[in-house]
Structure formats: structure tokens, C-alpha cells
Specification:
Blueprint lengths: L11 H8 L42 H8 L5 E6 L5 H7 L2 E4 L19 E6 L2 H11 L26 E5 H6 L2 H16 L3 E5 L7 H16 L18 H12 L2 H14 L4 H23 L4 E5 L15 H6 L5 H6 L3 E9 L2 E8 L5 H17 L9
Parallel strand pairs: 4-5, 4-6
Antiparallel strand pairs: 1-3, 2-3, 2-7, 6-8, 7-8
Amino acid sequence: MLDSYIAPYDATVIERLKAQGAVILGKTNMDEFAMGSTTETSYFGPTSNPWDLDRVPGGSSGGSAVAVSTSMSQIALGSDTGGSIRAPASFTGSFGLKPSYGTVSRYGLIAYANSLEQIGPLARNTEDLATLYSAIAGEDERDATSIAFNESSPSKVELARLRVGVIREIYEASAKEVKSVFDRALDLLMSQGTAVEEVSLEHAEYALPAYYIIAMSEASSNLARYDGLRYGFKEYQEGRWTEVYSMNRAKGFGTEVKRRILMGSFILSAGYYEQYYIKALKIRSLIRKDLDQLFKRLDALITPTMPILPPKKGEVIEDPIRMYAMDLNTVIANLAGVPAISVPAGLYGGLPVGIQMMGKYLSDYFLIGISMSLEEILHNAEMSPPLAS
């Protein structure tokens, strides 16, 4: 749909990076309109996981994670609507942060689901991650959802004073291969004096359907602007507006994008709006309350970043339900707007596994501090994966 389109202006995050002397190397591959969990829905074809070229790198920001993990770039940007920074970070052995909602301007970001998505950093280590986040964060008058917050320099968090909770519902739904790496990392944390307890997120089972109902609804509204007339793909010009609109969108959008637009339009239609969309918003509020209660006594929540190891190409793309289920561990942070970070925890069968930590709203630098400490002890224990070759 935007194959030949060249944007007339830079996004705020790019402006800020350029102003600080950053060099923009180029575009990275991603799922079309950020809709996908494997980078296989890209118009340009799939990206390969550098740890196993027959496997996917995660998505939607798979290209950025691969560029970082293979040392093509020190740092990269991604967008995270339901885990699209953390998923590829986990699958490629990289560090990825989904910031608190509003701390990074979305001005210039192509909208998928406005109330969920956030631009964030990917890097090869926590220090670089913090540097990139500090460069792009901050209020922007052109983005009404952006906020002013007290910036600070991240420093290592003393793990002996840390209190973390393992979300039972997410842990139990993860594959045994992922659990084995996660358990080793958790044992290492406890050996440092970290207080770890198992907790329950009461409405966790409703997070995934609520997320997709909200995301698809917002996508159907946002993508209505691509009409094949004003900009982007416009092969068909003759005929009634409805015909031209339909033909251009039918050819301009990929299968997964059309699926989500159709689902979103159905959800928002008369008779189903209250049955699905309003209920999903109520679940979102309940999940926020659940997290607020847990954060009253815990510093962070910790889970495997992804419930499975990186799947092989073609393994989940043909089964949308299975692909959507890959987001089980990550969508909670987007629904609540809280920050979440993925840290590489080790390898299983030569494939990276990540640990995810979620914190209370605006605790981004605190999570980065935990990541600094965790990265150090994992490295000293020779558990952190090396860079992909």
C-alpha cells in the first residue's frame, strides 16, 4: 500500500536522533503495518532468524532485532503494539524495551492501534538501550498522548533488595523448553538475594482476546485512510468511489492486514460494539487494577518473554489463532500502558530465550537498572547468549 510512498517529514524520534548526531542507516523489515508476530507478513518477504535461518526472528519489528543481533547496527527502533519489540528481542538474543505509554512521541508513526502502541529501543546491551531511550523520550506538543516525566540516569538496581512476582498463568502456559531457561535465570536471581514469589493475575485469561478486539477495532478505523486516491498505492482510478476504494484496498493490503480490518469492522458494527468492544475495554481496566494491586507490594513482575522458542518459517503464519497466541505473555503490558523489558537469559538448543520484566507506570529507568544488574550476573554465570554470527 505504501510501496512507492516517501514521507514528506521525519517522525519525532528520528528528528531527535538526528539532532544528537545519530546516523540513520536505513529501513528494516517488518510485518505489514506491524500486523504479525513473525515478520512473515512483510510485503518484501520474511526475515530470517540469525540463530537458525529456517526460523523466524519474531515480529513485527523483526528486521530491527536482526540488524542489532548480527551487529549490522548498534541500536535500532521498533514499534510495540502487543509485544512487537520484545518478541523479536527474545527470539534473537537482543535487549528490547516497550516504554510506558506516552513517554515516547508517536508523531510520525503509522498508526495501527493508537491506544496500545509505543515506539521503543532495541540494542545489544542495556547501556545502549538506555542511551537510545533517553534520546527519544520526552513530551512532544505534536502528540497529545505524550507526557512530561522526570527523566533520570539509570543505575544498577541492587538485586538483594528486589521483590519480584512470577505470574503463574503466564509461566504455566509457556513451553517446557522456555521454562528451563527461565528457571535457571530465576535461580540465579534468588542466589543474589532477590525475593521471588508466585502471583496470580486474576484476569490474565482474558488479556489476549481483549487485546485483539481492541487492536483490530482501532486498526479498521486507522487504515480507512488508505483509499487508493490520496497517496500510496492507486492502481485503479476509474469507476464509482466505492468500487475504486474496494479494488485498491483489496490489492494494496496483504492477507493478514485485510483479516484484521475485516474483524475490526465486524466488532465495531451495530449490534456487536457493546458485545465485544465495550467488554474488552472493561477487561483492560480490570487488568490495570490487577497490576496496580500487585505493584503495591512488588517492584516488578517477571515472566518468560515468549511462550515458545522461535518457530520455523511457515509454522504459524498459516494458523492465525496460533500466531495470535504467541502474544500471550506480552500483551498485558500494552493493555495497561506499563513498561516492559526483554533481557536475553540464555539458549535452549542453540536458540535464544528472553526474560520479560514489567514495572509500574513510569518505572522505565528502574527496569533498565534491573536489566543492567541482571545482564551482569547472567554474563558472569556464562548464561547470556553471545551475539549471533
